[in-house]
Amino acid sequence: MPFPKNIHSDYHAHIYFDESTSDEAQQLRQAVSEQFDLSVGRFNQKNVGPHLKWSFSITFTHQDFEQLIPWLEAHRRTFSVLVHALTGDDIKDHTDFAYWLGEPVPLNLSSL
């Protein structure tokens, strides 16, 4: 897997977890909120949109990229993290413009 590249203006990172890792994910979400002045999404304990696992998201820009991505890589533990561009083309954003930290998680692209 190639490491994420900062080539777009805006991004999402989705951190995936399940019932057994929910407490650790909540701690990671809190750490992101404390470390960065970014929009951290809801703690989804259900599948939302194309995401087939529980998740929370972080919305950030190219200006935050160089700080956030290495921090996430260092602190994600065993969580899979989808990093994707926000260009307005949801299919391309979740495929061509997507990178993974950790193991990729299947997505339901038909919901886009």
TrEMBL record:
Q: Which Pfam families match?
A: DOPA_dioxygen
Tell me the domain of life: Bacteria
Q: Which InterPro entries match?
A: DOPA-like_sf (IPR023389), DOPA_dioxygen (IPR014980)
Alphabetical keyword list: Dioxygenase, Oxidoreductase
> In the UniProt record, does the keyword Oxidoreductase occur?
yes
* GO terms assigned for molecular function: dioxygenase activity
Matching entries from Gene3D superfamilies are given as: DOPA-like domains
Name by which UniProt lists this protein: 4,5-dioxygenase
**Species per Swiss-Prot/TrEMBL record:** Vibrio aquaticus
